[in-house]
Amino acid sequence: MTVNGLRLAELIGSLSHALDMTEGQPRGHCIRCCWIGSRLGERLGLEASNRGLAWYLFIWGVFTTFLFIGTFKVNRVLQAVFATLIVLFFLLAISFGWGNSGLLKVAGVIGIVCGSLAAYLAVAELLNEMYGRTLFPIWPVGEKESYKRPEDL
């Protein structure tokens, strides 16, 4: 078989088999998981052209939800960043999966809010650390109400 004759499905099958071998899974495990996810997407009525992107964004939303739990001991601004990021990923997954352009615009606004919060947190952490005092509040969680320096941890 020539390279030109290699179809995408054969390439994905080969990569899936290699992943099964390296991860110690039974033969065909990854392909079956992909097939189940694809059929589930069809049953949910997701558009075929955006189904992969919708699932990708959904998985990132789930992952971000687990990371959000880790922010409960850090500060309120980081919690807001992750909370808006969770909403953003799920809105994007829904809007791409079902082709809803209205939700895509709402997701865009939430994305701008999320990015602004992340930029504020980055500037606040940098300047608070450089000046050794709270210039920009980040509302740390815990008994101390001021900015936590590394030596305070």
Overview of this structure, please?
The radius of gyration is 22 Å and the shape is elongated. It is mainly alpha-helical. The chain contains five helices and no strands. The termini are far apart. The protein has two domains: 1-43, no CATH class; 47-152.
Key descriptive features of the protein:
153 residues; mainly alpha; elongated
β-strand amount? under 5%
Low-confidence parts lasting 5 or more residues at pLDDT below 50?
A: none
Indicate how many domains the architecture comprises.
2
Can you count the beta strands? 0
Can you give the mean pLDDT? Answer: 82
Which value, in Å, is the CA radius of gyration?
Answer: 22 Å
- Helices and strands, in N-to-C order? HHHHH
Morphology: elongated
Helix content: 55-70%
Q: Let me know the largest β-sheet.
A: none
Assign the structural class, choosing from mainly alpha, mainly beta, alpha/beta, alpha+beta, or little secondary structure: mainly alpha
Assembly of the depicted chains: single chain
Count of helical regions: 5
Distance between the termini: 61 Å
Question: What is this entry, summarized?
Answer:
This protein is an all-alpha fold. It has helices at residues 8-23, 29-43, 51-69, 76-98, 101-131.
